[in-house]
Amino acid sequence: MKKFLTLTALCAAVAVGLSGCGDKKDDAAAKSAAAQPVTITVGATPVPHADILKFVQPELKKEGIDLKIIEFSDYVKPNVALADKEIDANFFQHKPYLDSFAKERGLKLGVLTTVHIEPMGVYSKKFKDVKSFGNGIKVAIPNDPTNGGRALKVLADAGFFDLKDGVGINGTPADIINNTKNVQIVEMEAAVLPRTLDDVDFAVINSNFAMGVGLNPAKDSLFTESKDSPYANVVAIREGDDREVIKKLGAAMTTPAVRDFIIKKYNGAVLPAF
User: Fold this and answer.
1) Are 184 and 163 found together in one domain?
2) Which of 39, 52, 92, 212 supports an S-S bond with 66, CB 3.0-4.6 Å?
3) Same domain for 213 and 235?
4) CA distances (Å), 3 to each of 6, 9, 10, 79, 221, in order?
5) For residue 159, what is the DSSP state?
6) How many Cα atoms sit within 13 Å of 56 on the Cβ side?
7) Within this chain, do residues 109 and 236 fall inside the same structural domain, yes or no?
8) How many Å apart are CA 223 and CA 202, to the nearest integer?
9) In 3D, which of 184, 116, 117 has the Cα closest to residue 155?
10) pLDDT tens, position by position, 43-88
11) Model pTM above 0.90
């Protein structure tokens, strides 16, 4: 009887020991899985968007997040790639463009956070100011509706012509009035505008593309968009994506350190919007 009880107790102890080992292995596996870095992929245009993302990479690394940056050179592919789940977020556009693009294509995209403003500027290789030009000049502007209307508003503010009452930032070339010097508008893809400066008299260029070819919007532009522009650049995500890694990305993009980085690196060519 004693031998039976002793054997029973021994078996029970072994069972408890094995169970404990199993629990420890499970705990170790869970901790190992938690320690694995999570990869998040963000699409961006090179300057300043990819620059800002590269700045936050080390901070996200501390959070266990491996930020992968894919650079795009146009304003269409980043949103399509986001909608198709090829990337987790993108950072290249302002909210009016995002809203217009998503509505036009039926995409469910939204804003994670607002980061900065890139004042649009008027550039020229042929003129030193926006007042001393003759009749029939050619001015290149972006061909997408939101940036095109924005560019026309900049030109109107600079005195090239007037726009119909109430048009605001939604104008088209058909809304131009009082065009006393017969300014001719040439619509082109935003990304190629810096390369048109040899062929046109003026070009209205988004700051990211201007900086991409070595132009400093604060110094080289002849006229700059008002600082109260509604065109703040945003990090875009798919609607309903509330993953913790996405929340951490948004938080990392709007820290005091990022604000200081933008101010010091771009000297007024890019302005924090948070």
Assistant:
1) yes
2) 39
3) no
4) 5, 10, 10, 75, 96
5) T
6) 28
7) yes
8) 11
9) 184
10) 999 999 999 999 999 999 999 999 999 999 999 999 999 999 999 9
11) no
Are residues 107 and 127 located together in one domain of the fold? no
Question: Which residue in the block uniquely carries the two structure tokens 């390369």?
Answer: 195
Same domain, 104 and 171: no
Tell whether 140 and 94 lie within a shared domain. no
CA distances from 79 to 66, 93, 202, 227 (A): 21, 9, 29, 26
d(CA 89, CA 106): 17
Q: And the tokens for 211? A: 């900086």
Query: pLDDT of 97-155, one tens digit each?
Result: 999 999 999 999 999 999 999 989 999 999 999 998 999 999 999 999 889 999 999 99
Q: Quick one: 239 and 103 in the same domain?
A: yes
Kindly indicate the confidence band of residue 35, based on its pLDDT and cuts at 50, 70 and 90.
low
Please tell me the predicted confidence (pLDDT) of residue 11: 38
For 251-260, the CB contacts below 8 A with 24+ separation are: 252/56, 252/59, 252/60, 252/63, 253/52, 253/56, 253/91, 253/112, 253/113, 253/115, 254/113, 254/114, 254/115, 255/56, 255/59, 257/55, 257/59, 258/52, 258/55, 258/56, 258/115
For 47, the token pair is: 């300057």
Look at strands 121-123 and 202-205 and give their pairing. antiparallel
Structural domain total, the chain: 2
Burial of 253 (0-12, 13-18, 19+ CB in 10 A): buried
**What integer pLDDT is reported at residue 36 of this predicted model?**
84
What amino acid occupies position 46?
P
Domain extent for 79: 35-118+231-272
Amino acid at 198: D
Residue 145: which CATH number? 3.40.190.10
262 and 141 within one domain: no
Number of residues written out for the chain = 274
